[in-house]
Amino acid sequence: MSNYGGYPPNNPAYGPGAPASYPPGRRPSKRMPPALMAVVIVGAVVLVGGFAGVALIFGLGSITRSGEPLVLPEVGRCTEATGLVLQGPIEVADCARPTATTKVVVSEIVTGTGKEVDCEPSQVTILTHGYHDGDFVTARSCGAPNLTVGNCYTKTGATFVYDSHCMSSSVRLARQVPGTDDVEKCKTATPDDYAARFRQGSAYNFADKANGLVNCFLAVG
C-alpha cells in the first residue's frame, strides 16, 4: 500500500500514469470569464462613482486605438446630439435648424497639455480620440447652447432639446440679455402678468459666457 501515496492500488484515478487529479475535497478554483469580469468591474464603478465613472472608463481609459486620424470638431459647427458627454466625431447639422441646439465654441487637443477635460457647466463636453502627428491623442470640444428666442425646450444634462409642441413640461426661451452674465437681469423689465411664469422658468435661466449673454426662460402654460 505504500507506492500509491496512501491510496488503494486498484483506484485508477491515483495510480501510476493516471491523468492529473486532486484528492477528494480539493478542487482547483475556477477562473472568472473575462466578459463576466468586465461586467463586475463596470458594476463596481457605477456603485462607487456613478455613471460619470462609467463615462470615464469608456471615454478615456479604454479607448480602442483603431488607427483612425483625429477628426477635430470645427468651431462654429452645430449638432443635434444630446447627452452628458458626447463622443466625437459629431454629426454636423445646420445651425439654423431648431433641433441643432449645440454649437462648438472650443476645440483643442488636451493630451500632454495638463488642461482640464471638462467644459463650462452650461456647455456640453465632446471628447474625440485619434492619431495626430503620429501620436494617439484626446481632444476636448465644448458645445454651447444654440437657442432661438420663442422656441420651447426641455433639458438633458447640459444640452437643450427642442420641443416643437411646447408641451407643459418644457420652457420657452422668452428673451436674451446681451452684455452680461448676471442671471438676475432676467427678473427686470418683466410684464406683471408674466412674473409668475418667469419665476417658474427661472431654474433654466443661465449665463452663456461663450456668446456673452443671459438666457431667460418662461414656463409654458
Provide a descriptive summary of the structure in words.
By secondary structure, the protein is α+β, with helices and mostly antiparallel strands. Helix content is 16%, strand content 28%. It contains 2 helices and 11 strands; from the N terminus they run αβββββββββαββ. It has helices spanning 34-61, 195-201, and strands spanning 78-79, 85-87, 92-93, 102-109, 124-132, 135-145, 152-156, 159-162, 171-178, 206-208, 213-219. A 6-stranded mixed sheet has the order 2-5-6-4-1-3, covered by helices on one side. The longest helix is centred in the first third of the chain and has 28 residues, at 34-61. The protein is elongated, with a radius of gyration of 29 Å. It starts with 33 loop residues before the first helix and ends with a strand. The model is unreliable at 34-64 (pLDDT under 50).
Question: What's this entry about, in short?
Answer:
This protein has helices spanning 34-61, 195-201, and strands at 78-79, 85-87, 92-93, 102-109, 124-132, 135-145, 152-156, 159-162, 171-178, 206-208, 213-219.
What are the main properties of this structure?
single chain; 221 residues; alpha+beta; six-stranded mixed beta sheet; five-stranded antiparallel beta sheet; 11 strands; elongated
Describe the sheet with the most strands: 6 strands, mixed
Kindly state the percentage of residues in helix. Answer: 10-25%
Structural shape: elongated
Secondary-structure element order, N to C = HEEEEEEEEEHEE
- Rg is 29 Å
Helix-strand category: alpha+beta
- The total strand number stands at 11
Mean pLDDT: 74
Please give the count of helices.
Answer: 2
Oligomer: single chain
